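Box 3.1 A note on notation
Throughout this textbook, protein chains are presented in two layers. The first layer is the amino acid sequence; the second is a token string describing backbone geometry. Keep the layers aligned when reading.
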Amino acid sequence: MQNTNASGTRTRAAAERARAWREAGLWDETTLFQHVRTHARSRPDSLAVVDAGGRRTTSRAELFETALRLAAHLHRRGVREGDVVSVQLPNQREAVAAAVAIQGLGAIVNPLLPGYRTRELAHVFEVARPKAILTPATHRDFDHRPLVDDVRTRTGVSPWHVVVGSPEGGEREEIGGDVGFHAACREGAAAARPDAPGGDARSVSEVIFTSGTESAPKAILHTEETVGFSLRVAWQDMGLCEDDVVWMPSPIGHSTGFNYGLRMALHFGLPLVLQDRWDARAAIGLVDTFGATYTLAATTFLKDLVDLARAEGRRLSSLRCFGCGGAPVPPALVRYARQVGIGVRRLYGSTEVLVATWNRADSPIACLDETDGRALSQVEVEVRDDAGRPCPAGEPGEIHVRGPNTCVGFLDDPERETRTISDEGWVRSGDLGVLDATGHLTIVGRSKDIVIRGGLNIAPREIEDLILAFPEVVSAAIVGVPDPRLGERCCACLVLRDGAELDLESLTRRLRDQGLATHKLPERLEILDSLPTTASGKIQKFRILERLGGHGKEEA
């Protein structure tokens, strides 16, 4: 009975917050489908999507008509309001049309990374139980058609399979599955159009799986209200306008690319320039050709872009807003980016809360370089100690977020939902941060990522930032390795530039010279060819620990 009462109180509190946000106009009734329809009717010939390396363009009218045809096909194949449809496509226009079609039916779009294989896709099928799935025929030399067949057999979940050809290959590649994309659209053109009011803004419209920096991905739920609020506030706080052009190299199978690339562009009627395969030189070409002004991507993308621009003496002055987060953003990189004309806005966010903090164009230079911004308008951010009390300014603690931007729950995972979202609506992040006296947040690590050496907590981010400033270091991760006496010691896992060398003695001497406390100095060094990352650029430290196993190359 106590649990029932607690659940009822929690539900009532959530309903009261939702009512207050609607009355304040923070949540509204508009949907993705409605925005796309409005822009298609008012500016049918304007540019909607660029893909295939800039070689293929799609107008707003073309995009909307394709979405309508696909929606009619999916409806004919049994997709109804509340059903999940998975979209495991690379950055190409068919994925954009699919998102609009699914949301227009009132179904739930489930963006997936093209790199998912049997293990990950089986997890998705078992948790989300999609009614349909769209995949490439092949992508980067991998055939997705037998993959879907295999996962259907393994899980007993049999979604309708739409196969999508590459931008270059088109319909001739769409063999296998249940139907090809072009054939599906032809069938949809001939079928009766379903009523497609654009779905209900209050219902779940997205289920997005986290990128797996810790373990099996979580299935996080958002509505048109939570996402719509986040986009409008980002637009306002970032000073974006109708002349902006969105360039998106982040995968649209991930929350970053899907919400702050695809959805941002469609919501406000901006051109969306998609880049599927990462290459810094190709990126510069797209930015220059289409006058890209805005993106949101991980540090890796920014670093490669800046390194190439500096090496060739180029400026990318059109790119005035590069939202950067998801991995450490060294202050020196922000300064170098400014020198080549890129306006970097460090940020903090997650799939659960979308973007929570972001630097503004008018933020002080020191904040732009060294912090991850302040809370977005109408969003609350607190840093709390282990007892749940707010930390004083300058003291590290776990980041908690509350606001109209936060997710509405986890798919079929009530225990995780209760652990993560408090009765008062605060979302526990599992991330460690410091708030300064002006409200600017700086991320210092993951709470589960903390190294505890002899009872002293060590935040890896501080050490990583120092090491990343070394000219010979490409990427760095500090992990805790077991120690029988101290509990854990710091291990530095580094990727070096070609031909560079660095030993443990030199590393610790230079860190000590920069004032790093002795107990924080790495006591083990691993030089690796690469660090395991998610598709969005986040370092997977649990994978590093799995790799290490035995002794390091050097130990103190």
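The CA atoms of residues 220 and 410 lie 5 Å apart. The two ends are 57 Å apart (CA to CA).
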